Amino acid sequence: MVQKIIECLEDDKHRRIGIYGNGGIGKTIVIKALFSAPEIKDKFDFFIQVTISRYWSRKKIQLEIARQIELSMEDIQSADELASINLESHSRLVVATRSVHICKNVASDRQIEVGALSWKKAWNLFQEQVEGVINSPSVRPRAEVIVSECGGLPLMIIVIGKALATEIDVSGWRLVMSNLLSVTGLESGDIDEALFQKLKVGYDKLHDYDLKCCFLYCVLFPEDHNIEIIELINYWIQEGLVTGNSADASRKGFRIVRHLIEASLVEPVDGVSIKMHDLIRDLASWIILSEEGSLDFLVGRKFNKVRNQELMLEPRTISIAKSPQKLPRVENCLLSKAGAGLLLPPEESE
């Protein structure tokens, strides 16, 4: 796959290349491998990678491009080296998206589909997650069914594999296999519903309720946002999700972060931050919305579509990405580009 893209990039006829595929199929992995390829590093002077989230704006994209260009320019040693960069003839645009329609409209020169893994590659990837536990004669047949049910999606294989890595009881494997086989939604065409039901194995395997809440709390941050670990732990402590004296609570918070990273439910970024894969974030939103009344905070991503359903939950903590709401019961609010029209009662919101 990467080699095919490299060949396109080396052809001057292909200035705009699109990569498309389902969520969790591995587009981000392909892009990272592409940027790391020696052939690409030798051909291009610098790289700019911009993530466009649901709440994108032209200005935000321009600022991020400008920031990365400035950082890249710092690596250029001389004026002669700068003059040798010809953006008109040598620049390339690579777009990665779930939508083939966007791919064709934005990257009109060439479109490449990222397909599902073959069963053999899927099995090898699953083995890397669970290691020797699947060598048991009673476990292996169930493991093979589980891999087949993952549909060749790398993210699902990794998350479910991590969830089963410490499962030594065959009954645990049998339960996961049964849950995957019983997933509904595919017949009616509700692919997202079926996908989330399967990915939820990773969430269900978290060993206690507070750990699950700490994971779900991450969805309150904006999409594609680098979440500072210390800031996140402080929020957990303030919410009572992590308890103990200051030192103990901090240590427990870091252990929870490590656990979530090991479960592949969040990704380490730079040693001080983490982020959620967009599909994992969608999973967390789906869990919060589907388990009505069981949790007291939720994300505002879907306000326009399911506003009434969400307000019936009477949330106590809420994250608003765009649209302000009248929410009299809110005590804690994380604002991201929200307007000035959010109305909270002074007594409860102070």
TrEMBL record:
Residues 1-81 form the NB-ARC domain. The keyword Secreted does not apply. Residues 220-284 form the Disease resistance protein winged helix domain. One of its GO terms (biological process) is defense response. Keywords: ATP-binding, Leucine-rich repeat, Nucleotide-binding, Plant defense, Repeat. One of its GO terms (molecular function) is ADP binding. It comes from the Eukaryota. Belongs to the disease resistance NB-LRR family. This is Probable disease resistance protein At4g27220. It comes from Coffea arabica.
